[in-house]
Structure formats: C-alpha cells, structure tokens
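From: lab user (bench 3)
To: helpdesk
Subject: output format question, protein + S-adenosyl-L-homocysteine

Hello, I'm new to running complex predictions and I'm not sure whether the block I got back is the full result or only part of it. Here's what I submitted:
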Amino acid sequence: MKIVLKPKRDESLRRRHPWIFSGAIAAGDGAPALGETVDVYSAEHEWLARAAWSPHSQIRARVWTFAEQEIIDSSFFHLRLERALSSRRHYDDDETTAVRLVNSESDGLPGLIVDRYADWLVCQFLSAGAELWKPVIIDHLANLWPTQGIYERSDAPSRQKEGLKPLTGCLAGSPPPELIQVHEHGLKLNVDIKRGHKTGLYLDQRENRQALAPFCRDSDVLNCFAYTGGFGLWALRGGAAHITNVDSSEEALLLAEKNAHLNGFASSIETIRGDVFQILRRFREEKRRPTVVILDPPKFAENIGQIQRASRGYKDINMLAMQILKPGGILFTFSCSGHIAPPLFQKIVADAAVDADREVQIIRQLSQAADHPVKTSFPEGLYLKGLICRVG
Ligand code: SAH
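Helpdesk reply: Thanks, we reran it on our side. This is the complete output you should expect:
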C-alpha cells in the first residue's frame, strides 16, 4: 500500500523523524489494515520511507525504515533486534541483570520495549506495527537472548490510542514466578513483573540511584515516591543512618521493605504510606530536617495542555523539599514528563528556591540510563531529567 503526504509535510521525514501525523497525509490507495506496512511518498511522489499503519492513532504511521531497498520482513526484525541487543551485551554479567534491551523508536523499532529481568524478558507492544509483528519478534528474541520465559506487559495506556486492547501473559517459555530477583550494580531487588509499574522496575533511574550513594554517609534520607525502594537501598549502601520511604502504594512499600531485608538493611528504615505533597508539609510542621531528599514523582504532564499545572506541582514539592532540608543538604530532583524540557525543569527548580528562600546550587545534571538511548532524529526519546542540588 502507498500513502502520499501533503505538500511541504515531508520535512520531518527527511530529518528521519519516525512519526507521520494524520494531518500530514493527503491520500492513500485503499485502506491499509492495522499495522500493515505502507510506502510513504512526498507530494512530488518521491519515495520517503516504509512505515507501519496505525489507523486509530493521531500518529498515523511509524517509520520502520528510510532505506528504499530495506524490506519489512522477518530478517528486518532479526537485524534490528540483533543490533539493539548487542549494544547491551556489556550489561550481561551478574552485577546488573535488569536492563532495557530494546527502547522503541530510539532502537529503530517504534512501539517495542523489551526489558530483561534476570532469566526473563518482559515485552510491551505499544503500536499497531509492533503488535502485527509480535510472533516474529518473539521468535527472534527467543533465539537471540535465550531465557526461561518471555512475558507480555502490553497494558500501558498508550495502546488504547492505537486501537489495541491491553494484553498481559506468557508469550514463550515458562510463566514467571511471583517475584524475580535481579541485581543492580550488585544490589538485590525483587521485581514483580506481572503487577509492577511499567515492566516491573524504573530501569531508567538505575545510574541515578547509584549516583546517590556517595552523598549519603551518616545521612537522614527522605525518599519521596519510593516505589519499591531503589533509591533508599542505594542510600543505605552509601552509609545512610536512617531512611524514610514515602509512597502512596501499599504493595510498592511492602516490596521496598522486602528489598531492604534482602540486602541486610532491615534496621533504620521508616515507611510512610501517603501523599508526598501532604507528607512534606507534615515534615515542615514537625520541623523534621532530613539531610538528603529524593523527589522522583510520576509523570505530572501527560500532554502539552498539562504543562502549567504540572509545573506548579513540581515547584510545590521542590519548594517544600528545600524548606525542610538541613542547611547544606542534598536534593535529588527529577521529572519524567517529556513535555517538561530540561531548561523548563531547571527554571521550576530555580523558582522553588526563590519561594523557599534558600540558596541552591546545581552540582550535577542527570538523565536516563544508557540502556535508554535517545536517537538524534527522535528528541522525544529524552524524557527523564534530574538535578542534584546543594541546598544552602
Ligand atoms: N523512585 C522510584 C520510582 C518512582 S515512580 C524508583 O527508583 O524505583 C513514582 C512512584 O510515585 C510510584 O511508586 C507511585 O506509586 C508513587 N506516587 C504517585 N503519586 C504519589 C503521591 N501523590 N504521593 C506518594 N506517592 C505517589
């Protein structure tokens, strides 16, 4: 099948951006099926790309290839998967066994996420194209990265926009146990790949969790939005005297406690289930002064329309964290909203410092881990940013 773009709507494709929005398409011959491969032409009828058709999404097609000679077949997926997997081979040791192997558009496979958790792979098929090629992809994965099993977690909300129903379950091999034990630079973590957030862990924060340890000797650490306690474990490994994990999810906090035991850090941990916005205010009222605070909230801005409200949310928690921190304390602060660009995030943190009436220095800028690469032609792939701040 063939689709033709409107005049002057070929520019982003010439820069190899992989998304074709519905408004850019002038005509097509016939009605391609969900995920079917289409050839994309400019208004001048020049061949541009080969893409997967998503009839229900605003992103109407996602490019598989910009090379005219490249056919979209089983060997295409073999090649792309092999390339993605081999770029993660250096993680293949016992020190770190939870790794993103395929990062969607940035690995040339729009809509496909593959994460390794020890002897299991967890996949998300988030586009019509990835869904269509699922059996082929699973086959290749089973050969290229032999594991005990491949589990599907295609229950991310983005599937809806593609007209796909949520799906979870075992795709190959044996079903996973309730908890899988993985290593993160030697620390042990239990992961619930069936019910956990995303595919089980926030792998994108791996290097940032490790970066926390050196700041934590004898410290009192407040770990906000703790999930299963990853940052807290690194604080304890770094010699923290006391840590407080705060999260709204009971299950996540239970797993955080389990993870602390697993690493022999059972004492000196406090757990608070609640809303971080309220807990920070309570700390302020009670004049509790931690020496390190971590703010790793969920995505506050899902779309452009939510940027302002999200900014207020980020500013609020950052201001509160700065107010309660002991003078000279350390703030690890993050935003995973792709719509909040790094300069805007820095501005929000600067505004928070003014409101908190504290002198704040940025001592390091952080991003997502190296197994979450960002293709230069796909800047949307960069979503996680963080700042390490010294709060005077
Ligand atoms: N720092 C974690 C990941 C955090 S994900 C890690 O490194 O693994 C965000 C977490 O925030 C989720 O666990 C979610 O349950 C929690 N959460 C979302 N909104 C919250 C709120 N208002 N108060 C407390 N926790 C919240």
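A quick orientation on your result: The radius of gyration is 22 Å. Let us know if anything else is unclear.
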